[in-house]
Amino acid sequence: MTDVFKEQLVKKIPTNKDLITKIGIIAIVVLIFIITMGIIPQLGVIITAAAGFGAYILIGRLRKEYEYIFTNGELDIDIIYNKSSRKRVFTGNVKDFELMTHVDNADHRNSFASANEKKDYSSGISSERSYIFLANYKGKRTAIIIEPNDEMLGAISKVMSRLKFFPNK
Fold it and tell me: What is the pLDDT of residues 10-44, one digit of tens each?
């Protein structure tokens, strides 16, 4: 048997919520600066610098990429924050997926409505590449949205049962 290894990066497109969060973080730092400089100027500089550093870290965590790693039937999904830190958010065997289809496939919408959790590990913009699958993850029925390229989708479809994989809209 030949080993199959596919890897793909998908960049999360910033949303209006991300922009509002950035503005809010910066506004809090400015507010901290104004308040602390009025009370204790020497300490205010240190507190403001610490708040600014914290803001830099928080804003950096808003820059996300998702990495899909497919190895011999196992799909792993990682979030990469600010191109520096990584966190595994999903791992599972595609043979165990209950169902996988295009996000806009109306025939299977009811199946995904019954999921306990819904996670979006895509760019955030629904497209012809957006797929959703249903899997039991950490004891919960979880619907997960991904954006696999043709190579990744082909590798997944070869492992999944044809009764569970519906590639058409």
Answer: 999 999 999 999 999 999 999 999 999 888 888 88
19 CA to centre of own chain: 17
Instruction: State how far the Cα of 13 lies from the Cα of 33, in Å rounded to an integer.
Output: 31
Q: Using CA atoms, how far apart are residues 25 and 13, in angstroms rounded to an integer? A: 19
3-state DSSP of the chain:
CCCCEEEEEEECCCCHHHHHHHHHHHHHHHHHHHHHHHHCHHHHHHHHHHHHHHHHHHHHHCCEEEEEEEECCEEEEEEEECCCEEEEEEEEEHHHCCEEEECCCHHHHHHHHCCCEEEECCCCCCCCCCEEEEEEECCEEEEEEECCCHHHHHHHHHHCCCCCEECCC
Distance CA 155, CA 108 (A): 22
Which candidate, 167, 153, 161, places its Cα nearest to that of 6?
A: 153
pTM of the model: 0.84
Quote the CA–CA distance of 88 and 74 in Å, as a whole number.
13
Q: How many residues does the chain have?
A: 169
Amino acid at residue number 22: K
